Amino acid sequence: MAVTEMTKLTLGPIAYHWSAEKRRDFYARIADETPVDEVYLGEVICSKRAPFHEADLPDTIARLERAGKTVILSSLAEVMLKRERKATADLAAMDAPEIEINNAAGLYVRGDRPHRIGPFMNAYNEATIAWMARQGASHICLPTELPAEAIAVATKAARDLGLGVEVQVFGRASLAVSARCYHARAHGRTKDNCQFVCEDDADGMPLCTTDERPILRVNGIQTQSQSYVDLLPEMPKLASVGVTHLRLMPQAVDMVAVARTFRDALDCTSNITDAEQALHDICGDVAFSNGFYYGQAGYRRIAMAASG
Amino acid sequence: MTDLSRLPCALIQPLLTHVVRRIAARHPSLFARLGPHQSTDFLIDPIELPFALHLRPDPEALIFRAVPRDAAPHPGALIRGKFMLLLELMDAEEDGDAAFFSRDLEVSGDTEAVVRLRNALDDVDGSIAEETADMFGAPGRVILARLRRNYPTQENGAVAP
Amino acid sequence: MSLAELICPAGTPAALRTAVDAGADAVYCGFQDATNARNFPGLNFTPDELAEAVIYAHAKGTKVLLALNTYPPAGKVDLWRQAADTGARLGIDAFIVADMGVADYIAQTHPQVRLHLSVQAAASSPEAIRYYCENFGVKRVVLPRILTIPEIKQVRKEIPCEIETFIFGNHGLMVEGRCSLTNYLTGQSTNMDGVCSPASDVEYKRDADGTMSSQLAGFTIDCFGPDEKAGYPTICKGRYTAPHRSDAYYAFEEPVSLNLSRLLPELIDAGVHAFKIEGRQRSKSYVRGVVSAFRRAVDDIRAGRSADMADLVALTEGQKQTQGAFETKKWR
């Protein structure tokens, strides 16, 4: 399948507050063992966490680049405080590596210099994508909730303008961000006095309904899906409409194995059914979902319609 | 207690039919806001009255009738509360969400049907209750005035009649 | 000193007339489709209704703002463009927009009509606000409900446009325009379809003891004891358990409404140009009560009198009110 061989696998930025040590080990394995083409780094969710791993960034970038990966730095999704504005401006001032912008504040300071558009930027349609392309965007990550028909139209528009197009195919979906920290709230603290309690939940803090149904995950100011988005079976379709990059979001599972499974399926060295089974084995009892893709409730798992 | 609560269903039925047809004729835009729920069966249940009201707001075949609770059809949507509250909601004197927050208003069944009915009625200018009373001339207005006087308001604390 | 305009909700033509008569400086409303973020059943305006509404409002000196504040999914952009064309033809006074593609279209096609930046664009920094001002000619930003008053004052100094803040009503917790919670459970999107906890997916269940549970698409969102005040069945106002919180708690926010009536003088002093009342989904009764109370308060403040606010707690969600982030950053 020539079309899928061209498709790149990317690793999204770590959404959680993993310790510096955990991150170093993680990216070492990504550099040495993981068949992803591009890696997004940087703190996207909470500006308070950035100081814990900023110092390691240059080494991590160098290591990944030596391993042949393209590195992109992602900007904060929420920009309000002075330190968040400064972090965004500092990132936007960089010439290399590439940057992915997740907030209009970043677009403002970046001006017309080249940049990627992150999933928090709400590039929902061809008009917005055309606007962004005119302002220097080179690549668009589409919103996670966009259904297949809209993905196809948006992708065609973006490709016609010469842009790369990315879709998340693995990991929890970001469902909301807030100014309030729900990790701190769960522990009776405020955001300013959070004591970084979010570090305890490497895959987010689970919330269940009162009738004990798992529903959401809390990650600091972010609310995520309980299920992992899994568009592995839909990858050929995504590639055929022109999506150039498929994003894996880091979860607290063996991401090397996850990436290999997706790569093998893309390269057709394993069939979709076997790859799906392998993914389930890697992720344990986590529920998978693809409802957004099919225009249905995001948490749902829709069996793919039989087609060629 | 009021005269109304003692009226048997059979006696008030012609009045209800008359009222609802007149209201419908005067406010045709009401039906557009109901959308697909023109054919929904609403049961409006004033808790202290001996009967409930069955409404199917279908412009082609309007139904508005008093039914004994044990003979009421299984409704698509149920709206339950004190009679005066329901009257005030119909007239947009009360805010439906506020009555719901305070638990004075209970809804069950098809929530969208209830929301549509509420929004449709809310878009009617003036008082449907007064329009109704006016249909019966002076006696109608006297009954409405007496109803309002006899019912304790929310602020006074609700007392079961 | 700013003008402290009062911006009031209108879910139906009757509510619009009520708001105008109660003293609104401007009303905001939307069409009966996905182009606005209150695309609720039985609510909003047909083009004919909007035409009459504009005439009614303008005759009394009230402005009409049209909310086109959702994000068109690819392939459906024309619906938003047609809505903009219709609004411009009917003489509305400003568009409230969030999507860059929609903003760009209006800036190019209807440059004579003012653009306001919706809270759905989530512009919470001077840089983000300037982006929209400089690129699309935005004249006013509706600020997210997450800034303290000193922070608003600082933002005001760094931006070239007017500021509108919410002063009363539903207290959204999530960054507006970045929330897919409803879509996750129901398949209908807040950003693309303009819905939030759509009524078609809401069900209330009542037990014999008077306990009421609210469900969204079969998920239990909250459960209220017989004497407990209730709130909207939105995911962000639900009660959940966490590993160390075995008793269900409000993980995001309690059912509560924003009420900044006591902070109006400080907001005016901070340079806020317009005060927004939330609630297009609410009744005429709500509109009448809230608009006239704030009309009196703003007039009192303008005249140098201390404002005597009517008690609005009966109209609030959960019958509880908060000053949220405006009062203290501890709220975060």
Task: Give structural notes.
The complex is a heterotrimer of chains A (308), B (161) and C (332). Chain A has 12 helices and 12 strands. Chain A is of the alpha/beta class. Chain A has an 8-stranded parallel β-barrel, surrounded by 5 helices. In chain A, strand 1, helix 2 and strand 2 (38-41) form a beta-alpha-beta unit. In chain A, helix 7 (126-134) runs parallel beside helix 8. Chain A starts with a helix and ends in a 19-residue tail after the last strand. In chain B, helix 7 packs across helix 8 (137-150). In chain B, 47% of the residues lie in helices and 16% in strands. Chain B is of the alpha+beta class and 161 residues long. With 332 residues, chain C is α/β, with parallel strands linked by helices. Chain C folds into 2 domains: 5-171 and 256-331, Aldolase class I (TIM Barrel, Alpha-Beta Barrel), CATH 3.20.20.70; 195-250, no CATH class. Helix content of chain C is 32%, strand content 21%. Chain C has helices at residues 13-21, 47-59, 77-90, 100-109, 126-136, 149-158, 181-186, 190-193, 264-269, 284-302, 324-327; strands spanning 5-9, 26-29, 63-68, 94-97, 114-117, 140-142, 162-170, 202-206, 212-216, 219-224, 239-242, 245-250, 257-259, 274-277, 321-322. Chain C is globular and about 60 Å long. The mean pLDDT of chain C is 94. The interface between A and C is large, with 77 and 73 residues.
List key phrases describing it.
heterotrimer, B: 161 residues, alpha+beta, Nonspecific Lipid-transfer Protein, Chain A, five-stranded mixed sheet, 8 helices, 5 strands, 47% helix, 16% strand, globular, disordered C terminus, C: 332 residues, alpha/beta, TIM Barrel, 2 domains, eight-stranded parallel beta barrel, three-stranded antiparallel sheet, 11 helices, ubiquinone biosynthesis (chain A), metal-binding (chain A), metal ion binding (chain A)
